[in-house]
Design goal:
By secondary structure, this protein is mainly beta. The protein has three helices and 13 strands; from the N terminus they run H-E-H-E-E-H-E-E-E-E-E-E-E-E-E-E.
Length: about 190
């Protein structure tokens, strides 16, 4: 029987933990226990800090969504409006990495263009909790209330991922949000291919 290296054993343990996490597909592990290529890139958490990890097939590759700690120095992030965000939303951010496989080989961190008030895009490295991926469509979605635009109770972005790059496809903004109802979004940007 072959002897497995510690890195391979850690990756196997990570996959078992994430698979056992159930429908959400996420679990909390120490950043130092991530596959080495991801642990090197994911510097928005301390090595001993436990982070949420979600792994899924995505566009013929593997997408990792990994939680960041509150100290996200060096990671561009969206400031959220506390009037329209929960404490969890205010504190939890996810960085997304696309890799060739579950070992994290060839991992790159995705950066997301966000339209600013001056119509210029700002690149951010993390999305708030509540973002999700549609691997079959090669898209990542996020809904949040940005502090920079307090007139909006919610915005929603859809990014298409092509060759390790996230491109903004759709941007919607809502000024009316009713409890328990889908926000009344107005489409501001539509670059979707369909």
């Amino acid at each position: 029987m072959p002897i497995l290296r510690p890195t391979v054993l850690a990756i196997i343990a990570l996959l078992i933990a994430v698979t056992a996490a159930g429908a959400s597909g996420s679990d909390f592990i120490a950043r130092a226990k991530l596959p080495p290529p991801l642990a090197r890139l994911h510097t928005c958490a301390q090595p001993s800090e436990r982070v949420a990890v979600s792994i899924q097939p995505f566009a013929g590759a593997t997408l990792f969504a990994i939680g960041c700690g509150r100290a996200t120095a060096g990671f561009g992030r969206i400031a959220l409006n506390p009037e329209h965000a929960s404490a969890l939303e205010l504190g939890m951010r996810f960085a997304y990495y696309l890799a060739r496989n579950v070992r994290g080989d060839g991992a790159t961190r995705l950066r997301f263009p966000i339209p600013g008030p001056d119509s210029r895009d700002t690149l951010v490295d993390t999305l708030p909790i509540g973002s999700w991926a549609k691997g079959e469509a090669h898209e990542i979605w996020a809904r949040f209330a940005p502090a920079a635009s307090p007139q909006f109770c919610a915005v929603e972005g859809v990014w298409g991922v092509v060759h390790d790059k996230a491109n903004l496809l759709i941007w919607r903004e809502a000024t009316t949000c009713r409890s328990g109802a889908y926000p009344d979004f107005e489409i501001k940007i539509d670059r979707s291919p369909h």
